[in-house]
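Late entry, oxa(dethia)-CoA complex.
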Amino acid sequence: MNAYIKSIGAYIPEKRVTNDELSKTMDTSDEWIRSHTGIGSRHIADKEMNTADLGVKAAEVALERAGLKAEDIDMVILTTATPDYVGFPATSCIIQDKLGAVNAGAFDLTAGCTGFVYGLEVAKNFIENGSMKNILLVSAEMLTQIANWEDRNTAVLFGDGSGAAVISADESGVSGIDDTILKADGSGAWTLERHTGGVVHPYEEGKTTWADTALFMDGQAVYKFAVKVNAILITSLLERNNLTIDDLAWIVPHQANERIIQAAAKRLKLPIEKFFMNLEEYANTSSASIPIALNDMYEKGKLKRGDKLLLTGFGAGLTYGGSILRW
Ligand code: UT7
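Prediction complete; structure with ligand written out below:
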């Protein structure tokens, strides 16, 4: 028996901010952002929404497409870098309550932008060891809330959004999550961090500034790491499953930067057309970017049951991970 992605859903906030609009309030330009990242716009959630609200919206779509009710869910796993509260309560518990998933457990999983890939493997194991029937894997992010809007190096890169998948057992033998690599390199932890607000650097009255608590990134270090690990993940997953690029319908990478994806494709001499990209519209939505991409592909009719997909993610931690699955 294989665990598989039974359904996918996503939610994108309506408010869309183009690069040109950003450049009215920031020292940047459409030309710079497009040429360095491929990003054309990002969506920003309303102030009265929070990460749990975004997660609930995507989850409702996934549940409906799975033909399941919230009561049918055994576990809610939320991946996020932007929880509603610091440490506790887990934002997944708020999602569980808002959905009415009264029979479910809930926990948050922190693996930066690789969260969805980590979550998929965790969910797969709950299903395949027989302890659970239906898992709701939600990836919801409000990066625009923790971006430092005075730092053009980072603020232009991120957007808000959420994706959700129902993971269940496939009885047909057509679909499955076949192989996964999950890795970390904590020596790069400080290249992508929120410095203040945790136990090591707590908030200090009169001393802590907003910028101390915002997202900080050493862009070039993360860029090099991303190109390297994308290439490792793709090569390793293909090799150890005796597959070639022709066996894959799509590679679905974390949607951070078109140049990272192009560099990995070039390094491996792979056709860029195999890589699904939608970051021009949504920018980097952290762990939500892969399920948002899968949802776009699903809605555009690009996914058939049994299609082989290779997912790759990388992000804060630093973490990286990839999966081969049959849709
Ligand atoms: O989900 C994981 C998250 N992270 C990532 O995926 C990010 C990985 N890194 C990157 O994608 C790239 O490193 C960036 C897009 C962040 C930056 O691109 P880059 O080609 O490495 O640019 P840079 O940092 O070397 O900056 C080049 C110049 C600098 O000006 P000077 O010092 O050469 O005069 C920056 O100040 O570009 C300037 N710059 C900007 N200019 C206009 C930086 N950001 C901007 C901006 N608009 N938004």
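Residues 28, 32-33, 36-37, 113, 152-153, 156, 217, 219-220, 222-223, 226, 256-257, 284, 286, 315 surround oxa(dethia)-CoA (CB under 6 Å). Will revisit in the morning.
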